[in-house]
Write a structure and sequence with these properties.
about 230 residues, alpha/beta, Rossmann fold, 2 domains, 11 strands, elongated
């Protein structure tokens, strides 16, 4: 999942971004409202952590533009504005959640997990495809009842495939949602990570659950390489 952190306190911005990257998210950052709006116009983020007190364009103005143009995008407001009226205004404009500074990072993590689950209209944190199961809260993958060791990027790929199972996902879409703004679309990184993920899954399942549709992308299916089988 790809997240944008909009925060002008650079130490806090770095701390949040580093923590979420450790969790396996692809994270982009910026420190003002205008740049945030430009990035939101160009990139299909899964969630935005948005400060209210921003230079160049206020956070509430950014939020209003998001709701006009990307109504499904999840927004978590993170602000030192502690008054009830500010919180109510943010929620009325369309924020999905509000966390006041100072905050505990573990609470921010939990709120982000909850919002990302809601994006896909799921009550449970468990997602499965045949013998493959992923617990989004615990960030673990289980195949045939046994936990499998995955790198953070492999886990993020498997998570995205499970949330979009039986649908062909293009390389461009994976770059948008699993990598951050530092990704090089010509580096071959996607193919390398998918290859290692396939190898680990195939070693347990004795078949490859990730199929390739030439010229279109990849898909995860119980049928494996044949999406229409």
């Amino acid at each position: 999942m790809r997240i944008l952190i909009v925060e002008d306190e650079l130490d806090l911005q770095d701390a949040i971004a580093d923590g979420l990257r450790i969790d396996g998210y692809a994270v982009d950052t910026c420190d003002n409202g205008e740049t945030a709006y430009e990035l939101l116009y160009e990139v299909n983020y899964d969630l935005v952590v948005l400060d209210l007190n921003l230079p160049k364009m206020d956070g509430l103005e950014v939020l209003a533009k998001i709701r006009d143009e990307k109504p499904e995008l999840k927004v978590l407001i993170l602000s030192a504005r502690g008054s009830v009226s500010d919180k109510v205004q943010g929620l009325d404009i369309g924020a999905n959640d509000y966390l006041a500074k100072p905050f505990d990072f573990t609470e921010l993590e939990a709120r982000i997990r909850n919002l990302l689950r809601r994006r896909f209209v799921q009550e449970s944190s468990m997602h499965s495809c045949g013998a493959i199961q992923v617990d989004l809260s615990k960030r673990i993958a289980v195949v045939n009842g046994n936990e499998i060791s995955l790198t953070k990027k492999e886990f993020s790929l498997l998570e995205y495939f499970l949330l979009n199972k039986d649908r062909v996902v293009s390389q461009e879409e994976l770059i948008e949602h699993v990598w951050d703004q530092s990704a090089d679309s010509f580096s071959g990184a996607i193919r390398v990570h998918i290859a290692t993920l396939r190898k680990k899954l195939k070693a347990i399942l004795n078949h490859d659950p990730i199929g390739t549709k030439i010229g279109e992308g990849y898909f995860l299916s119980e049928k494996g390489s044949d999406l229409n089988a």
